[in-house]
Sequence to fold (418 residues):
Amino acid sequence: MDYLKISVPAGDKITVNADKTLNVPARPIIPYIMGDGIGIDITPVMINVVNAAVSKAYQDARSIAWMEIYAGEKATSLYGKDTWLPDETLTAFNDFLIGIKGPLTTPVSGGIRSLNVALRQALDLYVCQRPIRWFKGVPSPVRNPEDVDMVVYRENSEDIYAGIEWEAGSDKAKKIINFLKKEMGVTRIRFDENCGIGIKPVSEQGTKRLVRQALRYCIDHDRRSLTLVHKGNIMKFTEGAFKTWGYEVAQQEFGATLWQGGPWFSVTNPKTQKEIIIKDVIADAMLQQVLLRPSEYDVIATLNLNGDYLSDALAAEVGGIGIAPGANLSDTVAIFEATHGTAPKYAGQNKVNPGSIILSAEMMLRHMGWTEAADLIIKGITGAIAAKTVTYDFERLMEGAECLNCSAFGDAIIGHMS
Ligand SMILES: NC(=O)C1=CN([C@@H]2O[C@H](COP(=O)(O)OP(=O)(O)OC[C@H]3O[C@@H](n4cnc5c(N)ncnc54)[C@H](OP(=O)(O)O)[C@@H]3O)[C@@H](O)[C@H]2O)C=CC1
Ligand SMILES: O=C(O)CCC(=O)C(=O)O
Ligand SMILES: [Mg+2]
Fold:
C-alpha cells in the first residue's frame, strides 16, 4: 500500500490467523498517533519507556518499528484544513492491526463531532476496555484502595454517544418533534418549541457482542463477577434491554443459571471450575457502590455513556485519569489509548503524567504476547511511585514526594525496571 504522508519504517506486519490469534514478528510495525495538546508531551515518553522495556526484556531479538500516522490538528496541517481523520489513518490501523494513540481534540467546527468516536465507529472498535488498578503509594480518596481492581467493558459504538442529535430550533429538530407528536403519540416533550433532540440507539447485537467479550475476559482472567450497569428502571427499552440481553447472552451462550434462586446468575468457569457471578446494578447506585464497597465489583459491562462516566470516576479512586489506561477493540483491530483528554492548559509544558498512555502501551504489549516487556513496565511504574518520584498530579496529594516532570517520570520508570 502506498501512503500519501505516512512513511512506513523497516519492519513487518502483525497478522491474524483464522482463529483470531496473532502472529507477531520480531520487529512489528506499530502505528501511533501523537495526539493533540499534551499528546506531544506524553507520547514520546511512552515510546522511550516501551523501547527501554522491550530492549531490556529481549535485547536485540525484538524491537518495535514505530510508524507515525495522523489525526487531529496535526492531520489538518498535513492533509488540509478540514481533514481531521485522513482515510489512510484508518487504512493503516486496518493494515497493521495494533496501534496506539494520544488524546485528540474535538474539532470546534466541521462535521466530526468527536474524532475518538469517529475512529471507534469507522473501525467498529466496539469494546472499550479500561482496567482500573491501584499502585501502592498512590493517593486515593477511598479507605482501602487496594480493593479497587476492576475492568470496565464499555460498549463503544452505540448509545446517545453515537451523536445522533439535532439542535434546538433547527428544521430537523422541529421535524422530529412533529413526527413524535403526530405519528408516535408523544405528549411529554416539555418546551417543544425550543428543544434539542438526541437519539439513543441500543441494539441486541451491540449489547450481546460486548457482554460476550466481557464474559470471555472473566473466564480467561479468572475473574469473580460480571456486573451489568444500566439505568433500565427509567430507560426501559435501551438501558433495560441492555440488562435483559446481557443476562440472555450469559444464559444462552455460557450456560448461566440462577444464582441462589435469583435474581442474579452464575456460570462455572470452564478453565478453573470456579463460579462467576453475573449481577446487575443501576448506574447511579453503582457510582456510590464503587466508592463505598469496591471489593464487591470486578468486571463491569455497561453502555457507552455510563462507561465514560464510570471509568473516570473509578480512575479517581486510583490516582486520577493521568494514570488510567484503555483499549478500543474490534474482532481484529486493537487501538490502545490514553483515557484522558488533551488537557490544553498543560500542552507542551512537559508537566503532565504520562502514566495513562504508558499503561495503555503495557496493555498493548500484553495483547501482543510480549509479557516480559509489559511486566517490566509495571515494575518500573511500581518502583517510581514507591520511591515517591512522581508527576505534579500525584505529588500534590502525597506526603514528601518529589515532583518530576513528564519526561523525568518516564526516566524514573525506566530506572526502576532494573
Ligand atoms: N480519548 C480522547 O482523546 C479524549 C479526548 N478528550 C478531549 O480533550 C479535550 C479536553 O478535555 P477535558 O474535559 O479538559 O479533559 P482532560 O482529560 O483533557 O483534562 C481534564 C483534567 O484532567 C487532568 N488530567 C488530564 N490528563 C492528565 C495527565 N496526563 N496527567 C495529569 N492530569 C491529567 C487535569 O487536571 P488538573 O487540572 O486537576 O491538573 C486536566 O485539567 C476536549 O477536546 C475533549 O473532547 C477528552 C477525553 C478523552
Ligand atoms: O472523544 C472525546 O472527545 C471524549 C471521549 C471520552 O471522554 C472517552 O472516550 O473517555
Ligand atoms: Mg471520557
Summary: The pocket of magnesium ion (ligand 3) is lined by residues 308, 312 (CB under 6 Å). The chain has 13 helices and 18 strands. The first strand starts at residue 15 and ends at 16.
